[in-house]
From TrEMBL:
Recorded name of the encoding gene: PIPOX
Protein name (database record): Pipecolic acid oxidase
Any GO BP: L-lysine catabolic process to acetyl-CoA via L-pipecolate
Similarity remark: Belongs to the MSOX/MTOX family.
Cofactor: FAD
Residue ranges annotated for the FAD dependent oxidoreductase domain, each copy included: 8-362
Pfam families: DAO
Length: 388
């Protein structure tokens, strides 16, 4: 066997994170193979659908700081691929004025000098018609935020990767990984070898990690992606400058509720609950729990009176969630030519371009551009011992 391998790097999983990683590797002249189990494009993972929120409003500083570069990298891809991927709409953040989460978001924005507007309750309805601000809630707008065109972004980054000479093989389910100086990957269409491997398999990550002696504390959740009909068409439309929104706490449920202005489906606004019920990624459609939809119905009846509180469209997506909702960006503890990007916990799309850059840096043995300590595998020591 040649010690050169077929490729410099194999990336498993062509969702947003694997696609950006492959693109970054190809930019660094690495001979890169991107393997995907489904025929592309597909709707079975976490990166499909037309829209995602992009925002700097976070309660942890490190995400807000990383978002500075993300915006630049998104703009760079827009220019390279001649396509519009980001639409600035602003993000309305609402939550109990004295809650720690709402205050943390406000502080992070102020500390990092992110342009924002605070909306006092008495002025709220003048700026945001058709929304009832809850008693005791504060409201602010992260004006840098907006909507990312997700499906279009995936097409663009995969297209740029191909232009750089990268190879995508889709419809190729990986069924084994053998670590070594050359990593051997067995997929349904062939056996491939490379000096480095990057694993970005989304909700299937632990299945892949079982081949290489590691398990992470990841939960896979089915998310009901709900669209709600405007009673008066256009009242929450992106062209009426209606913003995306994030409700950080409310009486209806303990998780965030978030929404995007109506745009992709005429007359429908997307509003989702930031959690769901556990599932196996291959059994997503058997998970039929709708308690999240009941919470959304109650919240929308109270706060969004211009929406019909019965979902008009329900689509499915998956979150892969870590216990602290921070990502996993690290090398395998025993095989440093295997890099893992996982656990994006329902908020990773906006970081895609930077995740790609960071996983590429880890794979090439370079010093990462950011402090990756919040994202290290060793923060889960109990999960390291039994499986290694
Ligand atoms: C409803 C919903 C709303 C969201 N909203 C936002 C938002 O507003 N803003 C934001 O920033 N983020 C948001 N997110 C989160 C974001 O979309 C995810 O963090 C991101 O898409 C995760 O990408 P990924 O590449 O890790 O996973 P995936 O997109 O699932 O990619 C993993 C890929 O690996 C492939 N794969 C797995 N196993 C194998 C195998 N054996 N062989 C070959 N290929 C394999 C899979 O088929 C898949 O294509 C949202 C997510 C959901 C579900
Ligand atoms: O990442 C995002 O912006 C969205 C909204 C908040 C909860 C998760 N995803």
């Amino acid at each position: 066997m040649s010690t050169e391998g077929d490729y410099d790097c194999i990336v498993i999983g062509a969702g947003v994170q694997g696609s950006f990683t492959a693109y970054q590797l190809a930019k660094k002249k690495q001979r890169t193979l991107l393997l995907e189990q489904f025929v592309l494009p597909h709707t079975r993972g976490s990166s499909h659908g037309q829209t995602r929120i992009i925002r700097k409003a976070y309660d942890q500083d490190y995400y807000t700081v990383m978002m500075e570069e993300c915006y630049r990298l998104w703009a760079q891809l827009e220019e390279e691929a001649s396509v519009k991927l980001v639409r600035q709409t602003g993000l309305l953040v609402m939550g109990p004025e004295n809650s720690s989460q709402y205050q943390a978001v406000k502080n992070t924005l102020q500390k990092n000098r992110v342009p924002m507007v605070i909306l006092p309750p008495e002025e709220f309805s003048k700026h945001i018609p058709n929304v009832n601000l809850s008693e005791g809630d504060g409201a602010l707008v992260d004006t840098t935020a907006g909507v990312l065109f997700a499906d279009r972004a995936l097409r663009a980054v995969q297209g740029q990767f191909l232009k750089l000479g990268g190879i995508i093989k889709d419809g190729q389910k990986v069924s084994d990984i053998k670590p070594g100086a050359l990593v051997t990957v067995t997929a349904s269409g062939g056996v491939y070898r490379a000096k480095n491997l990057v694993l970005t398999a989304g909700s299937w990550t632990n299945g892949m990690l079982s081949y290489i002696g590691l398990q992470l504390p990841l939960k896979v959740l089915k998310i009901n992606v709900c669209y709600w009909k405007e009673k008066v068409p256009g009242s929450y439309h992106v062209q009426q400058r209606f913003p995306a929104f994030l409700q950080v706490e409310c009486p209806e449920g303990k998780h965030h509720i978030y929404g995007l202005p109506s745009n992709e489906y005429p007359g429908l606004m997307k509003v989702c609950y930031h959690t769901g019920s556990e599932t196996h990624p291959d059994m997503r459609d058997r998970q039929s729990d709708q308690s999240d939809i009941d919470i959304l119905k109650r919240y929308l009846t109270r706060c969004f009176p211009g929406l019909d509180p019965e979902p008009a469209v329900v689509e499915s997506c998956m979150y892969t969630v870590t216990p602290d909702e921070d990502f996993v960006l690290d090398c395998h503890p025993l095989h440093n030519n295997i890099v893992i990007g996982a656990g994006f916990s329902g908020h990773g799309f906006k970081f895609g371009p930077l995740i790609g850059k960071l996983l590429c840096e880890l794979s090439l043995g370079e010093v990462p551009s950011y402090d990756l300590s919040p994202f290290r595998i060793r923060r889960f020591p109990e999960h390291l011992k039994p499986s290694l």
